[in-house]
Amino acid sequence: MEEVMHEYKHHELKSGPGGKAGAVKSRKQAIAIGLSEARKAGGAVKRKSATTKKKSGTKATKKRAAR
Predict the structure, then answer these.
(1) What is the model's pLDDT at position 13?
(2) Whole-model pTM?
(3) What distance in Å separates the CA atoms of residue 64 and residue 51, rounded to the nearest whole number?
(4) What separation in angstroms does the CA of 46 have from each of 61, 64, 65?
């Protein structure tokens, strides 16, 4: 994870094959890549809990639910 964040910080992290267009621009995307690589390497990385997933949502969705 440290290595991936270092690459992200120095604009060296790529999301896939390709040139400049494949550069990772968001911190969330860099974290997702790091977790994915850790899982592939056999690390025990927890997934998001069900309660965390439930809380997320857009403001528009929340407004519709409040009506």
Answers:
(1) 81
(2) 0.51
(3) 20
(4) 27, 32, 30
Q: Is-contact 16 22, C-beta < 8 A?
A: yes
- Hey, what are 32's tokens? 């997702």
The candidate with the shortest Cα–Cα distance to 9, out of 45, 19, 17, 26, is 26
Q: Rounded CA gap, 34 and 19, in Å?
A: 20
Q: What is the DSSP letter of 61?
A: H
Q: Per-residue pLDDT tens for 22-58? A: 678 788 888 888 888 888 888 777 677 666 556 666 7
Q: What backbone torsions phi and psi does residue 66 show, to the nearest 5 degrees?
A: -75, -20
